[in-house]
Amino acid sequence: MNYRLYIIYYRVSLEKEYRMMYRIGICDDEEACRIEISESIRNIALKNDIEVKIIQYESGIQVMDCEKPDILILDIEMEHIDGLEVRDLLEQTDNEVLIIFCTSHDEIMSKAYGQNVTDFIKKPVKDEEMEKKLLHAINIINRRVKWIFLNTISGMTKFKISDIVYGIAQGRYLKIYMLDGSEYFITDKGVSQLYEMLKDMNFARISRSVIINFENVNTIGDEIIMTDGVKLKSSRRMKKQIQEDFFNYMCKVARVERADR
């Protein structure tokens, strides 16, 4: 059978900076449902200032044969391959796709749980519910992010987030220091902006002019000693909060390590 693949881009930010684009797939064999959900996602993207690429799939077969999304809004009841079969196939071939099941039948939901199933939405879809479930899935994706693109004197540069040790404001620029000893001047962001981008990825702001990566901290006491041996001072006002945040970070790391054993 021949199927058409519909792809719609929505660029909702006019800022000239790197923005992560989320590929949102809608798989439903009813065109009216695809159009309705696409419009809902477009409004959510505009409201929350996020960039999305919407891919409409007419069938489960098309999901498996075409470009994969980051998040798939998946109808359960479809011809040829139903949503449960698509879930099983994706778990075997692409463990990164997050699934939000969409159905008008509550009784089917009990069968729809899975490794990458994040939520369920009941038809007809309400914008408020879609927003909540979609943003939850996007937050899961954000926690997976391992790279960041920043403007340096040399141009747009890709950085591994875990390799950033700390950043210090220097004049008009922000200077970041990397694990390998390299240093870069960031030309389009200050301390506040970079911290907002990285605060959910184990970064802390220890003063008005300095941010650090907890992953690259050796000791926090009167001084903060980084893995490269550099000693930093936190502001007196922030000192207690930073120590508490670092303790919580270490507890989280310990829980993850225990779970992996």
Automatic annotation (TrEMBL):
The GO terms this record gives for MF are: DNA binding; phosphorelay response regulator activity
Taxonomic lineage is: Bacteria, Bacillati, Bacillota, Clostridia, Lachnospirales
Origin species, per record, is Agathobacter rectalis
Q: Per the database record, which ranges form the Response regulatory domain? A: 23-138
Family matches, as PROSITE patterns: RESPONSE_REGULATORY (PS50110)
Q: State the function annotated in the UniProt record.
A: May play the central regulatory role in sporulation. It may be an element of the effector pathway responsible for the activation of sporulation genes in response to nutritional stress. Spo0A may act in concert with spo0H (a sigma factor) to control the expression of some genes that are critical to the sporulation process.
Q: Which residues carry this modification: 4-aspartylphosphate?
A: D75
UniProtKB keywords: DNA-binding, Phosphoprotein
The entry's protein name is Stage 0 sporulation protein A homolog
